[in-house]
């Protein structure tokens, strides 16, 4: 069965409103003959005359009267769907946004973001969930609205991404630790006991490659899944944690931080979202605040 031409709905709406082929033709900027052909198609499609001659004019059939309100609502709904989004009323906006972030993001950027969002849109709630892997499925499935992280080979190619900040790794120890005094040389750093952060359970990374290049190897005594855990262990022991500087600012309060004695590449933290939300006004507004908050702490 062939699908009906939905453009006929707009033609029928005008015909029923005008009650005249000539009037509908003028309104739709068509010739009277073209409008007559359109009416013939409507009659064939609906199986009803719709408009019939009564003296010098046309009157609607019972079927046309029955359809008038329904067709009008359908046309208005279609126009609303295709119309550009209206200006966002933030004071009336009621919505929950789910953000999937790496450990440390909420602690450092969350307070400012929550305050800014609350000031402009008190009906908006932010739900932060832990990023335990790099799987893009939550964004694809609509379970997550925004995500932060490093774009890599496992990132779904259709996702939108925008750089938020650049970061680099530093060393962190408790106050009074031997490395909190004097110059931290590659050999002093490598000789310590280290806690390594890995969500995949691997025990080597760019820092180990940099140490290997100068003939050194550090001793990793424990592997944890997040930066806050590694810093908590370093705070309560002689372990050395190596974490991103900007991502862990508040987490390192009261501890001693120092530049790594070997060169490691910077990392770029990006904001990621699915293209289905690209043009959504509220989502676009939230993305702007995330960018602003991250830029403010550069």
From TrEMBL:
Keywords: DNA-binding, Transcription, Transcription regulation
Domain HTH lysR-type: 4-61
Record carries keyword Protease: no
Listed GO MF terms: DNA binding; DNA-binding transcription factor activity
Stated name of the protein: LysR family transcriptional regulator
Gene source species: Candidatus Accumulibacter proximus
Family: Belongs to the LysR transcriptional regulatory family.
């Amino acid at each position: 069965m062939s699908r009906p031409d939905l453009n006929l709905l707009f033609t029928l709406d005008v015909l029923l409103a005008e009650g005249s082929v000539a009037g509908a033709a003028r309104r739709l900027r068509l010739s009277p003959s073209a409008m007559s052909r359109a009416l013939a198609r409507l009659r064939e499609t609906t199986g009803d005359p719709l408009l019939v001659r009564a003296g010098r004019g046309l009157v609607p059939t019972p079927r046309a009267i029955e359809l008038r309100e329904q067709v009008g609502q359908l046309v208005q709904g279609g126009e609303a769907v295709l119309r550009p989004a209206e200006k966002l009323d933030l004071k009336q906006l009621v919505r929950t946004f789910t953000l999937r972030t790496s450990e440390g993001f909420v602690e450092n950027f969350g307070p400012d973001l929550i305050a800014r969002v609350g000031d402009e849109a008190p009906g908006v709630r932010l739900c932060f969930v832990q990023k335990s892997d790099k799987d893009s499925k939550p964004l694809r499935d609509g379970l997550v609205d925004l995500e932060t992280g490093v774009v890599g080979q496992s990132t779904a190619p259709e996702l939108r991404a925008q750089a938020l900040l650049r970061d680099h790794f530093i060393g962190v120890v408790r106050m009074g630790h031997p490395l909190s005094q004097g110059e931290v040389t590659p050999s002093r750093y490598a000789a310590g006991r280290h806690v390594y952060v890995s969500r995949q359970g691997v025990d080597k990374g760019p820092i180990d490659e940099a140490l290997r290049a100068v003939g050194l190897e550090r001793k990793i005594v424990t592997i944890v899944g997040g930066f806050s855990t590694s810093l908590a262990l370093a705070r309560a022991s002689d372990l050395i944690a190596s974490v991103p500087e900007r991502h862990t600012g508040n987490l390192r309060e009261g501890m001693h931080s120092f530049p790594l004695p070997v060169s490691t590449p910077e990392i770029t933290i990006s904001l990621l979202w699915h293209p289905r939300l690209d043009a959504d006004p509220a989502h676009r507004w939230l993305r702007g605040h995330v960018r602003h908050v991250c830029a403010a702490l550069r």
